[in-house]
Each structure stands twice: as C-alpha cells, then as structure tokens.
Specification:
D-Maltodextrin-Binding Protein, domain 2, 5-stranded mixed sheet, elongated, about 300 residues, alpha/beta, Arc Repressor Mutant, subunit A
Amino acid sequence: MFTRLFAESGLSLDRLRALLKVGAAGSIVKAAGGDAVRQSQYSRQIKELEDFFRAKLIERQGKGTRLTSHGKELARISRFFMVGLSNFQRGCLAEEQTFRIGASATFIRQFLVRMLAEKSSHGDDAAYATEVVSDGEIERRLHDLTLDFGVVGNTLLSRPLQTKLLGTWTLNLWVPRRLRLSQAKAAEDFEQQQLPLALALHELENLDAISKTYQARLTYDSFLDVLAVMEGEEMAAMLPNFLAPTKNSKCFVRIPIPKLESKVFQFHLAWNPRLLRLNPPAIRKRDWLAEALNRMMARDTAED
C-alpha cells in the first residue's frame, strides 16, 4: 500500500517539520531565527521534499516565501499526521495535555480566565493556554490545528469548522457625570457625534458597522482599554453589557440609546471536527467549555 513512499529517500518527519516551520513563519530566514546554518538546512530539506514529490512546495513572495498550493496541501497533511503522533505519544507517556484557546482580550479576561481558574472544581485534569487572536486569525489557525478552540463573533466560518452559541450581548453607552450632561443632552451629543467617545475599534470591526458609523475621539484595541481610559472620567464609552464601569458607581451614568442597544452580538465556540477525530478527549473538553462559558455568559449578561 505504501511501497512508493518508501521506494526512494527524501521523505522524513524532520523535512516535513521544516516545511511547516517555513510555511508558518513566512520565510526561511524567519523560520531559522537568523541562524545561517539552520537556513541552509531548511532550504536543503524543502528542496529534498520537492524532489521527492516532483512538485514545487514554496515560492517567493516579496522578501519572504509562501507555500504553493502543493505546499499548503502537504503542510495540512503533515500537520494532521504530527498532531496524531503527538497525541499518541502523550497518551503513552500519560502526559497532561494543554488545550489552546484563542479569543479577544476582553473575552479572555471577563470569561475564560475566571472559568479556568475554577476548573479544578469540575474535576478537569487538563491544562489550558489562552491567546489573544482576531476572528480571522482564529479561523486560519483552527484549520491549521495550531489552536484547539476559538471564541468568535462570526459564525460564517469556512468548512469544516463548526460552532456552538455561547451567548449574546449588547452595547451600552456610559457617560461620566463629570461631563455634566443630562441624559437627553448626552443622547443628543451622541447622535450628532459630538460626544467625547472612546471606542474598542479592533473588537468591533468584525462584528458590526458601528465602528464605521460612530466617529470616536479615541480608539483602542479592546474594551478593556476603553474601560481603563474611562477611569479618568473624561471620556464616554460604548461597553458590552457584561462589562460596566461598576453597576453602583456614582461616577458614571448609562444613557439609553435604543438603536444602539437593539443590536445583538454573539459569541460562539469554534473548533475543527478533524481535531476531535485525532484527539477524542477534546470532545469532552469542547462540551465542558461550551457549557461552562454559556452558563457564565448567561449570568454576566442577565439584567438586574
């Protein structure tokens, strides 16, 4: 069945790993970390793979390189193969597994960190690592199996990725009392885009056109940054309903903006079903994550 694969030299795990490293880094130089000896080694190993498969695997792109269509397909096959081997080795050695979860900075701090801190009470014996990643990057890395799970706002992910709803949320407008604006005046200034507003541009750009509709005085990457700048009590801000300055604060007032609060956003847990086939224990982790995060979101977004 595999006679042709072993009929000649040129195929090995080291060579396949070199292809994966170069593909992920975007160039041989970056993959080798500037080490001239390793650069030469990676170049030779990829050339040997190309000779073995009689196909071009990498090509120049500007100052770097990228995988060709053949290179991408071989990288995909290699990654799945190595994930399977790694899982098998870890099982044989009874080693603890680490599950990698990608999400926005706000979701990680508000939900994931708190939930994972309590995981021992669920009898969870696995380790978890979180990374701040955009929706687009999460999708790519789920395909590449460099993330095990992701939390995204967009469900239109390419096949075979799958998702499960974790919860919904809305945006609220908060204004410092120091600005001395009545609710009516604050709402009017907001509508006329005259309100000094801080906006989490990065965490909104994949969710809605709000970031383009409302002009902000200051823009930041995350809602956490916006919340921090609000402490100066000089800026108004749009924040998720699960992330208020403090519900009993005398320093801020929530301004009802019906057309803003009527927009409903969602968080979804995303995964690659191929990962579950390679690593069956991940099925239980997926189900636990979905249930625990759904429960936590429901609690944090519930109205008083």
